[in-house]
Amino acid sequence: MPLHDTVHTVTERIRQRSAPTRGAYLQQLEFQARRDRGADRLGCANVAHAFAGMPGNDKLRVVVQKAPNIGIVTAYNDMLSAHAPLQHYPDLIKDEVRKRGATAQVAGGVPAMCDGVTQGTPGMELSLFSRDVIAMATAVALSHDVFDGALMLGVCDKIVPGLLVGALQFGHLPTVFVPAGPMTSGLSNSAKAKVREQAAQGLVGRGELLEAEMAAYHSPGTCTFYGTANSNQMMLEAMGLHVPGTAFVNPGQALRQELTREAARTVLGDKGASCPPIGRVVDERAIVNAMVTLLATGGSTNHLIHWVAVARAAGLVIDWDDFSALSAVVPLLARVYPNGSADVNQFQAAGGPGYVIRELLDAGLMHEDVLTVRPGGIREYTREPQGTADQQLHWADIGASRDDSVLRPAAEPFSATGGLKLLSGNLGRSVIKVSAVPPDRHVVQAPARVFASQGELQQAFQAGELDRDVVCVVRWQGPQANGMPELHKLTPPLAVLQGKGYKVALVTDGRMSGASGKVPAAIHASPEAHAGGPLALVRDGDVIRLDAVAGTLDVLVDAVEWQARTPATVPPGLLQDNTRGWGRELFAGMRRNALSAEEGACTWL
Questions:
Q1: 156 annotated to a ligand binding site
Q2: 17, 47, 134, 350: which has the highest count of C-beta atoms within 10 A?
Q3: 454 close to 543: Cβ distance less than 8 angstroms
């Protein structure tokens, strides 16, 4: 199938726009690749330090026999259910590479915070910038510079983008990402959401709510909704950075363990061809492939920030216009919570990432002429892994969708367009996830109620002040203000108002969780209010029109009056309260240097 014209056009404009920065990136990659291997290049004392902690046989292999040495960067901790299974991966990997005459070292660990724990707390204001901390920690780990390849162990929201940004600084290294898989299904996501809405109305108490939450989040593995963490895994498959089909195999299975061993074999080039360097794998075609699969599955809005940063780390420049153009032609193939009732285990059972990638390739909506970590290219990622009794891996054709309420072919999609929409108007540029929003809610026009924090909105809801048609404006939530926290705690009260029949929308320069979407929300508004953006001009009672059909977001105020308004200032003490304590002081430099959301909220450019 020929490549779709729009996919071709978007890819070409990214290539042309990025020519200077991509050229400089590849030049650096070539310089790094031409050097002698680390154990031969470094001084004797450097080499001794690097391998002092190794078992004697491994020292012999890496120093004398010049065996490949693989660096492991791990985001393991047991605070994150998704990362708890990673605890024993390094031992498994070391065992596997030794069987093949190679060595491996844990080069370093990176921090990994759980947004589920920190939602609505001061810790959430460290969340977005933790991505860049993870990138820096990855660079620190790999800066030992004695590695012939790398394995990245991580799964969740900021962790995968951070690992990617860091790994791309060492783009000369073959690099494979190693996930842990989702937890098994517990209380359904829709049932959990219902209890949350009941709690917001005071219909159930803390005991009932806690019981529901613990039934939903109940074991090691990734949360089962299709939020940022699971969107990460879909996009890594589409970029060819995983062992094919490894994203959504549950922890604890024999197949899961064998896939981890296969990742070690893959980075060593154990399939008859060397594993290419990550800086070559991640080019403009791979970035577009990831964007397309995000749109085709109704994935997380957070990636309109994170993937801009990932692309920039590879010398590529993308923006929201690229996402918007692709969204107009990419069909929605998946219904997974929050844009459906299924969880990721049901998505996997229906055909999973391999089904989506095959349908998109066959429809000409993905680039097939790309490098991946495997010699078979991206077509390998259209098959699913299976194990045998003797633990031998093989991959099988997926066939037709096994549940067309969850996955549909490109010829019969749930929607002809993708799940994200760019909004622009006199309130700046923002994005909305429309895949989960009922069609009759795609246009909302109502008076504004302006808030300086999500806490203020919650108080107004509890007081009954929002029982009407309303567009809630929550400002001072951007990267430069308080680190751009997710405002996921607003979903239950706004959903309650919508359920009462009111026309409700949210407009903010903050983020929403990757699991949000039921209520129309214009998020990531740029420029942010703290940087002089137009949200600072909005007043209570202004009529705002959010039109996700036309792609507009406007305040319906006379243009002369609008231009004459004086921007509101941050309420006294608000930012001080939101930037002190809980370690937030340490991120002051990041807030000062952060670029806009559309520029990836990068702190390192």
A1: yes
A2: 134
A3: no
Number of structural domains found in the chain: 2
Say if residue 527 is preceded by a cis peptide, omega within 30 of 0.
yes
Q: What single string gives the DSSP state of each residue in 300-335?
A: -TTHHHHHHHHHHHTT----HHHHHHHHTTS-B-B-
Residues 366, 441 share a domain = no
Angle between helices 303-313 and 228-238 (to 10 degrees): 40
Least Cα distance to 227 among 383, 138, 360, 114 occurs for 114
Q: How far apart, in whole angstroms, are the C-alpha atoms of residue 441 and residue 439? A: 5
Average pLDDT, the chain: 94
Distance CA 419, CA 556 (A): 27
The last residue of one of the domains, among 366, 397, 428, is 397
Q: Which amino acid is at 442?
A: H
The alpha carbons of the chain give a radius of gyration, in whole angstroms, of 24
Q: Report the CATH number at residue 566.
A: 3.50.30.80
Same domain, 327 and 426: no
Is residue 487 within 8 Å of 511, Cβ to Cβ? yes
> Would the annotation count 472 as a binding residue?
no
What residue numbers bound the domain in which 569 lies?
Answer: 420-599
At 236-293, the pLDDT tens digits run 999 999 999 999 999 988 999 999 999 999 999 976 678 999 999 999 999 999 999 9
> Phi-psi category of 305—alpha, beta or left, where left has phi over 0 and alpha has psi -120 to 50?
alpha
**Burial class of residue 28 (count of CB atoms within 10 Å of its CB; 0-12, 13-18, 19+):** middle
Q: What's the pTM?
A: 0.95
Same domain? 451 vs 525: yes
d(CA 40, CA 14): 39
User: pLDDT per residue over 19-76, tens digit each?
Assistant: 999 999 999 999 999 999 998 999 999 999 999 999 988 999 999 999 999 999 999 9
